[in-house]
Amino acid sequence: MNPISPEKPLACWKGSDRFEEEVVSTLTVILKTAGCTWNRCRMCSYRNVRFSTAGEEQSNDLVLGQLSWVKAKQRLDTVDMVKIYTSGSFFDPREVPPEAFEETARLFSGKVVIAETRPEHVDRNRVAGFISHLDSARWETPLYVAIGLETTNDFIREKCIDKGFSMAQFQSAAEEASRGGAGVKAYLLMKPPLLTESEAISDMKSSIQAIAGTVDMISMNPCTVQRNTDVERLWKQGAYRPPYLWSVLEVLRHSPVYVGCDPVGGGHARGPHNCGTCDYDIVKGIRDYSLSGDRALLDSLFHISCRCKNEWETVLSLEKPYCMPLTGRPVS
Ligand code: SF4
Ligand SMILES: [Zn+2]
Asked: Based on CB atoms within 10 Å of each CB, which residue in 155, 156, 163, 314 is the most buried?
């Protein structure tokens, strides 16, 4: 590896995940990079943490430095799977230039890698090149390209999230990843701003239904209120509330396929939450389900009794959507 001084990634931690019906040990690495080319999604604060002046050579060195840190500080021999995120897209060569890209594959050789990216950066040759350095023949599919599809509804993706790509672009990126030899993971976002609780549930149910069987893995992220985002501004105005944990359970228990879910910030005002009394048990239960895949656990959680269940049911039946002008355009 390049003799570049190690620098700690934005975050790096060990945990466990469900993969191919088993629990595997994982390392999650969030690399600080030159940042997201899109840089507009309403709920995202990672895009604000970037090396704003980094050119290609500097970006390369900065990523190599973070890989050196991972190599020095983490016992990689105890890890089966590595999940990689950046300040934007791992497959954007502006963020992760070729040398650092190849070094990442070599460092994690023999593991399953899940790397997140926007669809426009997925290129079959780069995907195949990464796999050629990563693959040790231990796993049938050693690389999964993960894309924040968020919803299968183009209108919600555009108006509520400002994500900047369509379902059709997601599908061609998924095709491109497959042609390069990778699997595909889709991240869904539950309850972006401007949706009612009930609309958010319907959106997730129909999104899961639409992509079940067409992607290899689905993970649903209940929306959290991150700092310096549009979502935070709305939340401070009382115009946004993260989803109820009841809603999360409602979606997961009706899903036709296994959907992983880690309710980040669960039980707190900025994360998915209920009343404060029942939150701990439900958040823990959802995390347990994500590892075990045990549907019966979701049903028993949904049927625990708490005074806030009534409130949630009332919200579902009474909350009305605010209207947005159909022809409105953002002005920058
Ligand atoms: S594409 Fe990803 S990194 Fe970029 S702004 Fe949107 S959520 Fe953030
Ligand atoms: Zn409660």
From this structure: 163
